[in-house]
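Reviewer has doubts. Consider these tokens.
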Amino acid sequence: MALENGAASEKTLLSQPPGGERHGVGAKGLSLFTVVWFIVGATAGSGLMGLPHALLQIGWVGVAVMIALAVGGMYTGHILGRCQVLIRERCGEQTELLRYPYPAIGHVSYGPKLRILISVFLDVTMLGESVVFLLLAAENTSAFLHDFHVHVSACCLMVVIVVVLCPVCWCGTPKDFWPLAICASSTMLIASVLLVATMLEDVPKRLASSYHVPFKWDKFLMSFGTIFYAYGTHPSFPTFQTDMKQPQKFTTVVLVSFTVISVVYLLISIEGYLVYGSTIQDNLLLSVAPGPLLSTVQVLITLHLFCTFVMALNPVSQEAEELLNIPPSK
């Protein structure tokens, strides 16, 4: 009897949004293809520019690390997706628009204490990541304006960017701002293609003089952290999955997304390592020769950061709205 009451309590908690109303994604849910755009856009971001330098520090071992972390990311993404499906099977289909889906997994597994702990970790991680995106976007915008003799500090631009993006952050769930996912992914993919072309132009000037440092164990942990960060967007996965039309196929989405991401990562990292060698800066863009292509890449990356700022902040915003009893979007 106690177990039945506990299960009923969990079902009520997970299926009832604020105000006692039920809601679901229904026909407005995201397709598999759209969720691929979300994951690619949220993952392949600022971490990409640091991968060639990480590869420089540990040599070709870094390629094996990237592949291993990609496989690990696929597996853990699959586990998260499976957990969401199990919650639906146990607590009903009305869990599709949970506003805190990741902490909900902890609640069903071990109770409210674990849910609170996961919420704290999730909020700190996503807020910190959002701040990084905001800082990078402000610095890139300041540098871009400086080229046109418009001098505005990155600190002032941070305020402007927040004011401009604030209304977009009011969108309820990923289904409400799916164009941002397409923009984030497309800008990064186009920027990657242009970056490859720019590095190819540098081959005659830089390849012969490049020097590749030998592998050193003391650099391994730092490089591992850089590569790990480039794959670290799992906190957003349950939020994307809750808006899917077919959440049970989330594993397929993860496999496709991480395959695309890994191809981009390996291509940029290996080419940058081979072309620039020991002259690679922490940020790859600082190693590339200035020119129209590089300027275009910087603009595209800045647009990408604007989009990922909103995407990274959304799980935190949804949970804050839940705590404040703000009704969900229809």
Q: What stands out?
A: The two ends are 36 Å apart (CA to CA). The chain has one domain: 42-318.
